[in-house]
Specification:
Elements lengths: L2 H9 L6 H4 L7 E2 L5 E5 L4 H6 L6 H12 L8 E4 L13 H18 L3 E5 L1 H7 L6 H4 L4 E3 L2 E6 L2 H4 L4 H23 L1
Parallel strand pairs: 2-3, 2-4, 4-6
Antiparallel strand pairs: 1-3, 5-6
This protein binds uracil.
Length: 186
């Protein structure tokens, strides 16, 4: 299956209640053979309206971090655990994640990235381990099958202005970039 075929299969999804309230499905964007994939939690309002992940305020901040460490956004692939926006941006529910995660797994199988970076606690708890503690474990890398994974703070948390978190994010993103460049050289 190609990514386009998967997207088409996803378009009409009504497996959970979020299918009824979405404006647009937010499938994922970027390089279809990306070395590096970012996974957030779920679309917000701007994403729901545009169909593109991380285009709102949090997305603009993510763009700044990518720019700072010199990773072009179009080189990476960006997706979310959920493809549809939860009402009032509440946390994705367990059952919604269970019903949606298969699409993300298929995206990973098709793209075959070398690195997956979870953006925030929700993605880390789903993809790395259920008791993930983002403040303690951010920036720690684990090998999972064919790829290396870590989690960094979610940019919307950083929008609240905590300087320590922002500094830690910079440090983590520099390591992401170092590893990324090594994989690009191979
Ligand atoms: N937050 C997310 O987790 N994902 C998006 O796409 C936008 C905001």
């Amino acid at each position: 299956m190609t990514l386009d075929e998967l997207r088409s299969a996803c378009e009409g999804c009504q497996k959970c209640a979020l299918g009824a309230t979405r404006h647009k499905l937010v499938f994922g964007t970027g390089n279809q053979s990306a070395v590096l994939m970012f996974v957030g939690e779920a679309p917000g309002e701007s994403e729901d309206l545009s169909g593109i992940p991380f285009v709102g305020r949090a997305g603009k901040l993510l763009d700044k971090y990518l720019e700072y460490v010199d990773i072009p956004r179009e080189d990476v692939y960006i997706a979310n655990i959920l493809k549809c926006r939860p009402p009032q941006n509440r946390d994705p529910q367990e059952n919604e994640q269970d019903l949606c995660i298969g699409y993300l797994r298929e995206q990973v199988r098709i793209i075959r990235p070398k690195m997956i970076v979870c953006l925030g606690r929700i993605a880390a708890m789903r993809l790395i381990k259920p008791d993930y503690r983002i403040t303690k474990e951010h920036g720690i890398w684990v090998q999972k099958g064919a790829f290396e994974m870590t989690a960094v703070y979610h940019p919307s948390l950083l929008l609240r202005g905590n300087t320590t978190y922002k500094e830690q994010m910079l440090t983590d993103m520099k390591v992401v970039a170092e590893k990324y460049r090594k994989y690009k050289e191979i």
